[in-house]
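Project standup — Tuesday

K.O.: blocked on the structure for the chain from last sprint. Re-posting the sequence here as requested.
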Amino acid sequence: MRLLLVEDDKSLQENLKTHLQQANFSVDTADDGEIGLFQATEYQYDAAIIDVGLPKLDGISLITQLRASDIDYPVLILTARDSWQDKVEGLDAGADDYLTKPFHPEELVARINALIRRSAGKASPLVNNGPFSINTSTLEVKCGDALISLSGSEYKLFEYFMLHIGEVLSKTVLTEHIYDQDFDLDSNVIEVFIRRLRKKLDADGEFGLIETLRGQGYRLRRLEQE
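H.V.: unblocked you, prediction finished:
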């Protein structure tokens, strides 16, 4: 999953980025509201984290402009300890959740995971598809009771598939939602990771789990629940 973090405090920005990357998110950062607005409208994200007190364009105005542009991915705002007005204004502007500074990075990760799940119509961190399951909190992938070991990049790809079961996903969409803005969109890395996932998850092709639709992309088949 790919996140946009708009925070002008460089120390906090780097700290949050590190924690989010350790939780298997790809993270783009912006130091002010104007840069954040450009990135939010230029690139594809699964969620955004926006500080209220930003230079050049404040966080409330940024969120208002995003929603006016029909950008509907989840937004979490960061507010000062005593700024309850910021919370109200942020939610009214279109934010989905908020955190009051100071906070534990682990809480931020948990809230972002919950927002992304809800936006995909999933209430629980455990997502099932036939015998396969993924826990977006523990980052565990299983087939039945057997734990499947995936690399960080393989996990990101499979998680995105599991949150979009049955949808046709182009290589461009997968790349834009999994990797940060510096990633080479023309590389064949998606095909490589698809092959690895098929080998690890469905080596004998029993489930036909990940389908290739020529000229369109890939689709994770919806399997009957056991």
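K.O.: great, moving the ticket to review. The first strand starts at residue 2 and ends at 6. The chain has two domains: 2-119, 126-220.
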